[in-house]
Design a protein that fits this description.
- By secondary structure, this protein is mainly α.
- 83% of the residues lie in helices and 0% in strands.
- Helix 16 packs antiparallel against helix 17.
- The chain is globular and about 70 Å long.
Length: 506
Amino acid sequence: MGGTAWLETGGKCMAKSVKINAILNVTLSASSMLVSVITIPYVTRALSVSGYGDVNFAQSISSWLNAFCVAGIPTYGIRECAKVRDDKEQLATLVRELLRIITICTVVVLGLFAIAILVVPRLAKIAPLMWMFLVSTLLQSYGVEWYFQALEDYRYITIRSIIFKIISLIAIFLFVRHSGDYIIYGGILALVTCGNNVFNIIRLRKEIGSSGKGALCLTRHVKALESFALLNIASAVYLSFDTTLLGFCSPDNSQVALYQLASKIKNAVFAAVLAVINTLVSRLSYYFAKEQQQYYLLLKRATLILVETNLGVACFLAVFAKEISILVSSEKYINAAMPLRIVAFAGFLSSINAIIGFCILTPMGREKRLAIANTVGVPVSLVLNLALDWSWGAVGAAVAVLVSEGCIFIVQFASSIDVFHSLNIGKDIMKSLLCNLVPMLLSIFCEGALPVNISGSSEMSSFIVICVGLLVYLLTWLLVSSVTKSAVFCYVKNIIANVYRRISGK
């Protein structure tokens, strides 16, 4: 297949480099981050706070319903397709079986969703948005992104996704202009951005062709999918259902808008990290099955680098949350600062949970423990949201997701403690903490010392404070990390040394 990455089996094709796949995946995530950086400031200024909240409320319902439709197949499909990707017949049969399961689940879930739109007053009030996101849920269910990720076909994924992001970006600037255009904005998000999934199905049909058209056995997947489905549904509930509950607990969706702005800033910043983790899943699964020494080497390096960078991102977001909220969406969203401070550290814990869950527990076949860990977070999230959202609004939802991620981390870490003993990274983690604690403290002093109004504009003042703070943070990190020889410092130093040797010809 053109552009498809195959692992070498029996002297066949060589695998694409993990670095190339990571670059492509980071490029894709960078494009998502860029689109968010461009659209969020524009949309939050153009739409009313409640209108923006209505769209996010509908989108949140679509997100967690999609988890019921795909029944854990996105994660399970990557692992299973990666195992048989050198055998076209087995691969095609597997894909057809998984698509059949998705179809059954989707018909049931979207049927119930349609009834809810008709009979639930809060949903009926914004019925046009809800019907659009019902179609969006259908398109997402058949996205088969897991198939292309298992084959490491990140070139296709990246190009296709970027094209549709550009289309959606243009559509937003052309058609979303006034405070009442939230229905148009919702339609663009629901239909245009998910339209690329149609091309996935077309390409999939071409690649598997008439292969694997024998008898299908859906039951062979049921036992494994129980854990993966529970995992995905649990994840979706505590990541998206909090927005749904917040919407039902608030008189309008203004609090949803504040919470979602904080969450989207956090997601945009952490997107590149999650892209790297997604890239590693398939390769780590292969290494664990074939070359365990390589598995532990890659896992150790990836874990240390991601922990240090993620912690730095969380600390910076927390310190400059007010300035970031004003710069991104104007002063009318200044109340998003506190939720942003809280979800910044929730994002850090979430990325660590992703490393443990998808880079350790999944390759090792411990998906049941992963499912249990995420299941623990669900009741915690539900109880805290119900207790806090009525009075605390967006801040309550942020606290709920932070505590939920903390509970999940504790359970996952306990389930993989033997692996961390083997990695022996305790001292390196302490270095990472020190490398970010010192810059954070200096940044807090910097943020408090700078005048509130450096320029005539609050947004320009916020921009100046953020730039000065970033410079202070990076220079302090560089100084501390060079002394402690942290993982990121050593990795960057090696890259620079290699580039220098190539340029100089040594």
